[in-house]
Design goal:
By secondary structure, the chain is of the alpha/beta class. Helix content is 47%, strand content 8%. The chain starts with 5 loop residues before the first strand and ends with a helix.
Length: 315
């Protein structure tokens, strides 16, 4: 049953999750699916156990949104066939019903014992995912926030064409860190660092497959995970084709401005410490950085004020 051997890979974009999945996909008994933004993306799993789909009209609306997703289209499923199959199951329907059907169809003919679903937004709704997939396991890959933000500035995105906003990024990193801390020690949750994966790939991957419970550790000669990524998404993941190098870990020091480095050092000081990332002196000071730093401080504390006001006004 997919419910018994399903692993969710959680992450923040540009954290090395695709590289991790490429390495796991090399094992004969592990199958890694491609990404999709199911309705509810990026903060919820829908429909929930408390608010399920109760009729054909609601199911049709859900599938309209699902099949409109640029990534889910690459799963190669037919909407009408999916609708008939799911409505035939009877109501109510929840996310696990829909996801299990779609994943089974996507992996039709694949005999691997373990299946991996790679999607970063499950981080924020782990309680609901655990309720719907009680036997599932969860892997979170973490990376130095300076490395992530540096990569975000250079990257393209399917869902958001805008370059990263550092204040939004910092607040998002804080939010994810709180979730990670809440789950450390849970038997179904594994945290690993991208930097450790690059430094000692064999050791980290061994710990991951042991956590998954993989018994058959034979590998396939087919290591073409990059080719499984849809063509319209491959440009987002060019770095996974080869073996990543430790030389890439500190590129952020030349890509981030002095004020950006200082902001991450200051506002993510606690988070850097939690994950054992060093607080390094910012490099590349320019006269404009004095002004930019003041602006970043202003916007950061303004964002905290807005968040605080929203929480107080929420009944």
């Amino acid at each position: 049953m997919i419910h018994d051997n399903l692993i969710f890979v959680n992450y923040q974009s540009r954290s090395g999750s695709t590289f991790l999945c490429r390495l796991l996909d090399e094992y004969d008994d592990i199958a890694v699916g491609i990404e999709s933004g199911f309705p509810g993306f990026p903060f919820r799993v829908l429909p929930t156990l408390d608010d399920p789909i109760l009729d054909e009209a609601s199911l049709s609306a859900y599938l309209d949104e699902l099949f409109d997703d640029v990534r889910f289209k690459e799963w190669g499923l037919d909407k009408n066939t999916t609708f008939k199959a799911l409505s035939g199951k009877g109501y109510p329907l929840v996310f696990s019903d829909i996801f299990t059907y779609c994943f089974d169809k996507y992996f039709a003919g694949n005999t691997s014992s373990f299946r991996i679903h790679k999607s970063g937004f499950y981080t924020f709704c782990l309680d609901e995912v655990r309720k719907q997939f009680p036997q599932s396991k969860h892997i979170y890959i973490q990376r130095d926030p300076r490395g992530i933000f540096s990569s975000i500035k250079e990257a393209d995105f399917l869902y958001d064409k805008k370059k990263g906003n550092i204040i939004s990024f910092i607040n998002g990193y804080k939010k994810r860190t709180r979730v990670i801390n809440d789950n450390l020690g849970e038997k179904d949750f594994l945290l690993l660092r991208y930097e450790d994966l690059i430094d000692n790939q064999e050791k980290v991957i061994t710990s991951v497959v042991d956590f998954i419970g993989l018994k058959n550790k034979s590998k396939s000669e087919d290591t073409s995970y990059f080719e499984k990524i849809p063509e319209n998404q491959r440009h987002l993941h060019n770095n996974v084709k080869g073996r990543s190098s430790t030389k890439s870990l500190d590129k952020w020091s030349t890509r981030l401005s002095y004020s950006e480095q200082a902001a991450i050092n200051t506002f993510l000081k606690k988070e850097l410490s939690v994950f054992n990332y060093p607080t390094l002196k910012p490099q590349g000071f320019k006269p404009a950085d004095s002004y930019n730093s003041i602006i970043l401080w202003f916007h950061f504390y303004l964002s905290k004020l807005k968040t605080s006001t929203t929480k107080r006004s929420t009944p």
